[in-house]
Design brief:
With 370 residues, this protein is mainly β. It is built from one helix and 32 strands. The radius of gyration is 20 Å and the shape is globular.
Length: 370
């Protein structure tokens, strides 16, 4: 029997002053919601009341990105009492999450004279212990490890020789080696996240260097995909004499995910695809074989929570679905008001019974119930 799902919009909040601008997601911690947007020409962090959507404080983190696909990209990260944010122009700030007071800030592109990417810096930051990771890219550094407490550089990761990608890094351990892996402009690479030593680089090129989707690691294998030329690939890691190798297990040409994200569930990979007219694809993790292509749901980004898919389509519709044998089993949907006012690229987030979706400068808080 299908579960009954209800969706109710609790509140809507305007994030910034450029209607079509904004691609970062919302984060709820306690009774507060954090998100970024363009305001008065600045890349701005917003802190909102989770119950009402009312603004508590803002912080201006450098100049706004107003070039191609204007708006903020990176989602803020919360670590204890502190919030960390990076703007599209490389301005990193550590803030008191309660008050919005600046603890430290620095501009990485200025510090290291590194050229920016075509669409601006987009990856979200990652934290491991005292190390705050950001992908710098360029001829001298791949990933930078910054002391999260002081903002000082702890080490500069060995360069791949390529510009940064747009997807966020993933952290994992493999055969007792702590790794951080990310997509750069030309493929997948990994570093020892204690030393910054480059462990491997695998080519996976994309048109306009659009490597955006975050890799997925599981049991010694890494899945990568893009929707701009290289489709999907699973790599197997092996270690011999302290050398890490990444060999291709399979390639797949159905799941070509541009930026909407991919989820691994029960041995199956789910995600939007550009192939065969678009839609949502499902393929097998172990051998890369196709399971299905569902064209009944418009492409979009999504989140998996409580074994449900919360999909935000490119037309601004929320779709809640369960995975089924040959398609997604849609349980309910909700067309969001004013959804035509912005580009629908931000990933939805789920916090308990709250679903946060962002379209341009509009943030929607939706209550969902079984």
């Amino acid at each position: 029997m299908k579960p009954t799902i209800t969706l109710i919009i609790l509140w809507m909040a305007t994030i910034g002053d450029v209607p079509e601008a904004g691609y970062s997601s919302a984060v709820q911690v306690g009774n507060r919601v954090y998100i970024t947007g363009n305001l008065d020409g600045n890349s701005t962090v917003f802190c909102l009341n989770a119950a009402t959507g009312e603004q508590i404080w803002t912080y201006r983190n450098g100049k706004a990105w107003t070039e191609m696909f204007a708006g903020t990209r990176s989602t803020p990260i919360i670590d204890g009492e502190f919030l960390y944010d990076e703007s599209a122009h490389g301005e990193i700030a550590c803030l008191d999450a309660t008050t919005g007071k600046r603890i430290w800030s620095r501009n990485l592109l200025n510090d290291y004279t590194t050229p920016n990417t075509l669409y601006g810096r987009s990856a979200s930051l990652r934290i491991d212990g005292d190390c705050l990771f950001t992908q710098l890219g360029g001829e001298t550094t791949s990933i930078l490890c910054i002391d999260k407490n002081s903002g000082k550089t702890l080490w500069r990761g060995e360069s791949t020789g390529h510009a940064a990608g747009y997807g966020s890094p993933v952290l994992f351990e493999h055969e007792d080696i702590p790794m951080i892996a990310a997509m750069d402009a030309k493929g997948l690479f990994a570093l020892n996240r204690r030393t910054g030593t480059l462990l491997f680089h695998v080519r996976h090129p994309a048109r306009l260097d659009e490597n955006i989707t975050t890799p997925i690691y599981r049991d010694g294998k890494i899945f990568i995909t893009n929707g701009a030329g290289s489709d999907s690939k699973l790599l197997k890691l092996s270690v011999q004499d302290e050398t890490v190798n990444a060999e291709t297990v399979w390639t797949n040409h159905l799941l070509a995910n541009s930026h909407q994200g991919v989820v691994l569930r029960n041995g199956l990979l789910y995600g939007a695809t550009n192939k065969r007219g678009g839609g949502f694809a499902c393929i097998r993790w172990d051998d890369g074989s196709d399971v299905f292509l569902d064209r009944n749901i418009v492409r979009g980004s999504f989140a998996l929570a409580d074994d449900l898919f919360f999909i935000l389509t490119e037309f601004g519709e929320i779709v809640v679905a369960e995975p089924a044998e040959r398609q997604y089993d849609v349980l309910t949907s909700l067309q969001l008001p004013d959804a035509d006012d912005g580009q629908v690229y931000a990933h939805p987030t789920v916090h308990g019974d709250r679903l946060y979706v962002r379209i341009g400068s509009m943030l929607y808080c939706v209550e969902w119930k079984r």
